[in-house]
Structures are given as structure tokens and as C-alpha cells.
């Protein structure tokens, strides 16, 4: 069977209200759910998105195998009622005749034996709600995950489709998120428990995943897969940021995902039929900009500047970008506007916002035009003003993401060579922008002699880089990944 479900974290101040809203006038009793999760010693199941558990549900004992599907909202699931009272062992053979069970068998073929990795003890209250799109179950979970001596509190709301369209889940989610300030969490109990068992409070930042496209498939399918790839990168990094524990790289990768999404929206001509998604992605991207700039300035540029100043006997701290002028990343991502963006993307990828896609030939011409303009901009870089250089970098990024999106449908060798040249180009353009951000961070303190030295050092590095960048036009001009416009 397939499970269509989304999970949301409940903030402490909303827990009583959420519990009361789920209970309603009928106030159904809570059910205690005690589960043991199993994996191999080398996490063979977790690494491929499988979760195997044995759970006591009131008087029932159920073994469940779940597997992630590719859309972020659907999971394959197979349940088997058990007669034994033991919860300390799992039998993979019980799922042998199912698609998800066959995936498990392949994983276990060359792996070590299953062991219990963590437990959960949850009290759940549920309520069925009818919407105009179908019936959903709202479940409020409150409890704990235990791995060895470590524990992690659980307080989340699950919205699962019982019957009807996936739109029922997404419509209900909008209501609960807006009313109670919830935030999406793509990490299920299995992933959170796996992290706890390994002593890792933070999941790795999610980078863009490769997109598998069949040359015989239609462009509508290609368009959907591209947007799904963007949604995965956005939602996974946003979930970790929303937890309150994240690195600067999570913010960076979230912004990369948002920029990739905006590129896809422009490339496939979705700005007019679905402008609200492009607008929301733009707002979220810009809101996170100050935090990203602060991380860049405090990183490698600060290190290089410290070394240069130490060489002449000076000690000085590079000013931080004023990230406090805006909200913190956790507040930006938890805000309803960002949460609504992700829900809108789930709707779109479920086929609820499908529009006719342009042909591959049209997309090739669009990329060819961008390629030509990037080459021209690089050649003229020394004569461009700062705004034009910034726009050139954005165009180069759009070209890179567009080529990555369509690479399986284009000439592989030409695309790979072009992407390699683009990577070097973007590295240098990025360094130019980082130096510019650092200079701007110093300007408010320009009356100080040491700060003026720092500004001069940064400006000299930037001028040297400006002089070098036009040489990047030649190698990129030689690459013709797509046909001429």
C-alpha cells in the first residue's frame, strides 16, 4: 500500500491548542504506541530510505516496513499483524512478496544481521476530518525517542490521506500550519532516531541531487522531475533549519535550492501560470541573504585578511555583515510564507498545477542565448558596473542549473565540458561578490586607520580578480552544449 502523509513539528506554545483541536468535542482517548526500529550495524536500511519497525498499538503488535518514494509525500508501506508478544526482533521475510519487501531483500543480501537501533514511546490522539478533496486523519504525537542513554522529545502532527486526492492532505496542512504556527519536517521518526543512535544532532546539508530523465519521456515528466529535485533540496534543508540546529551550509544549500527552483520556473515558462510560487521563492531567498553574506565574510575572506594583517604586525577582526537587520534563518523558514511555498510545490508536483511544457528545442535555444550572453559579459567584465557583474553571475548560475536539469537529454560530453568551464567561472564570480560584500561590511568603520588598510587590501584583491575574469570567456566560448539560437 501507499501512504500519503506530511509531518509537522509543533512549537511548545501551541501544544495545548493543537491537542485540543485534534481532540474536538468527542475527545477520543490517546493510544500508546511503543515501537522498536531495526537496521544493520552499517545502517544499510537508513541509507536507502527504508524503515523497519515492530510496534505495539494498544493490544495489537504490528511489524511495518516503509520505503521513501520520490515525491516527498508518498511512502510505500506494508503492515503485518504479529501474534507474539516480543518486540525485540523483526522478521524481514514477512514482507517478501511486496515491492518494498523486495527492496529490503536486496539491501540485506550482502549486509550484516538486523539489530535494534532505537525505540519510540508515543501517545497519539487521532481524528478523521472530511474535506472537499477527501478524508484525512489528523494525528497528534507526543512522546520520546530513545537510543541507548540518549533521548529526544517528539511533538508532531501527522496528516495522512485516508481517501480522496492528495490535495486533501495539503489543504488540511495549510489550515493547521497557519492556525498553529507549525512547520514541515521531512525527517520521520526513523530518520530522527537513526541520527540519535549515531549521536548526530544535525543531518548533513542536502545538495542538489542528480536528475534522471528518460530521453523517450515527455517534457512534462522532465519538468515535474526537475521541480521535485528542487523541492527535495529546499524541504530537507528547511526542515533542519526549522529544528533550530543547523549550520551555515544548510542555509547556503537552501538558497541554492530556491535559486534552482526559480531557474526551473523561468526555463519552463511557469512564471505566468504560477507566479505566486516564483514570488514566494524570491522573497524567501532574499530574506536568507543577510545570513549567508555574514557567513561568507566570517569565513575564508576573514582568514586570508587576518593572515595578511598578521604579516605586518596588525590584529583586527573583520566586521560582520549586519545579519541582525533581518530575521534569523530559523524564523524565516518557520514563517508561514516559506511553509506555504513548500506546500504549493507539493501541490504542483502532485499534478495539481500541471501546465504544458515547452519543447526541448525551445529550451535549448533559451540556454544557447544565455550561453552567448555569459561569454560576452565575461569578455567585457572590466567595463561593467557592479550591478551588471552581479546580473552576469546570476545568468551564469541560471545557465549552469539549466544545463544540469536537461543534461540527460543533451549531448553528454559537450554538457560536461561546459559545466566544468562554468564551475571555474562561477567560482571566480563568486569570489568577486564575496570580496565586494566584505568591503561593504568594512565601510561603516572606514574612519579607523586599520579598517582603511583592510579595505585597501580587499579592494586590491578584487581589482586583480576583475582583470583576470575576462580570460574565462575563451574556454567557455569554445563549448557549445546546445544549438545556436
TrEMBL record:
PROSITE patterns: CHAD, CYTH
All copies of domain CYTH, residue ranges: 1-200
SUPFAM superfamilies referenced in this protein's UniProt entry, alphabetically: CYTH-like phosphatases
Domain CHAD: 216-484
Top-level taxon of origin: Bacteria
SMART domains: CHAD, CYTH
Gene3D superfamilies recorded: CHAD domain, Hypothetical Protein Pfu-838710-001
Pfam family, one: CHAD
Molecular functions (GO terms): inorganic triphosphate phosphatase activity; metal ion binding
InterPro entries: CHAD_dom, CHAD_dom_sf, CYTH-like_dom_sf, CYTH_domain, YgiF
PANTHER family: INORGANIC TRIPHOSPHATASE
Record's protein name: CHAD domain-containing protein
